[in-house]
Amino acid sequence: MTRRALRGRLVWFRDDPAIAGAAALVDIADGLLVIEAERIAAVGPATDLLEPDLEVTHYPNALILPGLIDAHIHYPQTQVIGSYGTQLLDWLQSYTFPAERRFADPAHCARTAGFFLDELLRHGTTTAVAYASVHPGSVDALCAEALARTMRLITGKVMMDEGPEGLRDTAQSGYDDSQALIARWHGQGRIGYAVTPRFAVTSSAAQLEAAGALLREHPDCWLQTHLAENHAEIAEVARRFPEASSYTDVYDRFGLLGPRSILGHCLHLAEDEMARLAATGSVACFCPTSNLFIGSGLFDLARLTDRPDPVRIALATDVGGGTSYSMLQTAAEAYKVLQLQNQSWPALDAFHTMTRGNALALGLAHEIGTLEPGSHADVTVLDLAPTPAIAHRLEAIDRSDLPALLFALMTIGDDRAIRATWVAGKKLHERNG
Ligand code: GUN
Ligand code: ZN
Q1: Is residue 202 over pLDDT 80?
Q2: Which of 26, 87, 158, 220 sits at 20 to 30 Å (Cα–Cα) from 77?
């Protein structure tokens, strides 16, 4: 069996720093991460673990972290990013739906899927929870590309039987296609399936019922959808589902809440909605660059988490409403969104969220988000001198002050700060120059 190792400063979390403080952090100045096949076999000080004949890749002046995890992103929106001037419902009509119609073409799916996954890797992201389009072929293309890269991916065909012309399925076809995709892809390699009703604006009651049935039949699949992103959206959901007491209640009635449910945005929730999210263990997904760019609102982290029954949280780019593939940039924008509300977000919390926190949110902390032996060898190497400006800034920070280093890196770092990305023990990205 091939054994190889990465050597350098190893940094990861064993616990949540918001609860356990600095004791949550593991920081090994000259560490060795020993990889056997796809997994981490051993980790510790290099002096303890070096052995003859081990092929060692050395990363000086860098931080070796678990691969970053993006909990909500749309792969058919790579050509939607940076579209000017509209808020959610108009943005969908003007830019997103036209772009997603092109995914009826398998060649377009294949080309975009490969580009998308390589772009994630270039940004240090090794796992994504990604929406495909309404077309089953869009899932096939993305899964095939993820399989070829041994990437951990959660994806699903968007269900939208009341969507616009040319992008509609039906309650029955959405159910049948999802069943077939689950049979084909869920558990293949490192791929998991997410039942994906787009949101309550574009699905009928019959389709949400079908989504609930899929989840009951496949309890180890995930669910992803959007919740309470924009006021016009919320009003439209209230109009469409007058019997429900809230937007959250619409999903609740159809059995769509639960510990494997990842709900994008969650910006405008009433108290009873947060209580239901907490009681069901559902995950509220913070997408700061998207929320700012589409003008949707400010994610109120304190309101969701400083309560006796905290809501589980994840962090995500939401490309193409979001404006960057970089989880570093996403964390920087999250920090600013929280600053605007007088809330703090220390760098250790941010890096925990991008790694172990998002892994916990997906129920995958035994497998990703950590450098513990037994987990998959998904690794992101952050360069401590990727640009003149960052090198100059970091010169003024003591190397022992890891929170300060991480905070500066997330604030001014981006894809240029990713020296290398490893997936399942293989180097899939290395920055040139
Ligand atoms: N709500 C429904 N669909 C979408 C989407 O594609 N992006 C965002 N940001 N919100 C949505
Ligand atoms: Zn989204």
Answers
A1: yes
A2: 220
Q: Assess whether pLDDT exceeds 70 at residue 1.
A: no
72 lines ligand 1 (CB under 6 A): no
95 lines ligand 1 (CB under 6 A): no
Domains within the chain, CATH numbers bracketed? 3-66+371-430 (2.30.40.10), 68-325 (3.20.20.140)
Distances (CA, A) of 146 to 55, 91, 198, 363: 26, 29, 22, 20
Cα-to-centroid distance, 294 and ligand 2 (Å): 11
Whole-angstrom CA distances from 272 to 257, 275, 304 are: 14, 5, 11
Q: What is the pTM of this model?
A: 0.99
The number of the ligand 1 atom at minimal distance from the alpha carbon of 322 is 9
Give 226 Cα–ligand 2 centroid separation in angstroms: 6
> Looking at the CA of 233, which ligand is closest?
1
| Percentage of residues in the chain having pLDDT higher than 90 | 99
3-state SS assignment for residue 384: coil
Can you give the pLDDT at residue 248? 99
Ligand 1 nearest-atom number relative to CA 321: 9
Which of 70, 88, 103 most suits a substitution to test ligand 1, by most atoms within 8 Å of the C-beta?
88
